[in-house]
Amino acid sequence: MKAQATALLQLQWSPEQIAGKLPVSHETIYQYVYADKASGGKLWKNLRCQKQKRKRYAGGLDRRGQIPNRRPLNERPLHIEDRKHVGHWECDTVIGANHKQAIMTVVERKSGYAVMAKVSNKTSDLVGAAIIKVLKPFQARVKRLTYDNEQEFCGHVEIDQALGSTGYFARPFTSWERGSNENFNGLLRQYVPKKRAMANITDEEIRMIENRLNN
Fold first, then answer.
1. For position 53, what pLDDT does the model report?
2. Fewer C-beta neighbours within 10 Å, C or N terminus of the chain?
3. Which residues does residue 61 pair with via DSSP β-bridges, in sequence order?
């Protein structure tokens, strides 16, 4: 049992995920990890330690520019909330150190499958082209996209034209409306912490992270 748990921890599975696969509680796994740490082991370095910081949101007002032809999320068909069908994706960007470069992430709501691409700048042209490139191989399974309210998604009309999709935008400051994507980005931060420079991340590493989180 310990050997199996250790192997999964080394693949950066969380104790909760391991408890879902092995007949052991996540609390027991945490105790095992910290006992290992106390004896000089390094299993603890595989844990996901995400510190939550309180954000200030300018009194709840969205002071960003308006996105042309923005389609609000409340117009998206209600059945999508049930996650019964593949084809509905959530999109966002993860920023590197000093707000230089970014990783564009797209997550399918039912399966949790994700695709990623690094962009040298958060311009709508680069982000839009990256979304089209990573989703083109799955075009038959791309029906609707849900975006954050950032300006890099201003090219949503061109994305819809290229993929035959329909794009929607979550309300400002409601990250839970894109919960699949937000959760994936939190897992991604284990590999790409906020202080890490994106310039040091290769396409090969992007593929490794994508494969590990998808599996």
1. 40
2. C
3. none
Map 133-199 to HEC letters.
HHHHHHHHHCCEEEECCCHHHCCHHHHHHHHCCEEEECCCCCHHHHHHHHHHHHHHCCCCCCCCCHH
What fold characterizes domain 71-214? Nucleotidyltransferase; domain 5 (3.30.420)
Q: What is the dihedral of CA 54, 67, 117, 77, to 10 degrees?
A: 90
The structure tokens listed for 166 are 């329909």
Closest CA to 84 of 110, 102, 115: 110
> Taking the chain, what is the end-to-end CA distance rounded to the nearest angstrom?
21
Residue 181 has pLDDT above 50, yes or no: yes
The answer to whether 118 touches 101, Cβ cutoff 8 Å, is: yes
Q: How far apart are CA 80 and CA 179, in angstroms?
A: 13
Q: If we measure between CA atoms, which residue out of 35, 50, 46, 48 comes closest to residue 8?
A: 46
Domain boundaries, the chain: 2-46, 71-214
Read off the pLDDT of each residue in 87-105 and give the average, rounded to a whole number: 90
Confidence of residue 59 (pLDDT cuts 50, 70, 90): very low
Entry field: residues in the chain: 215
User: How does residue 49 score in pLDDT terms, banded at 50, 70 and 90?
Assistant: low
- In angstroms, the CA 102 to CA 118 distance is 6
The stretch 103-112 carries a mean pLDDT of 96
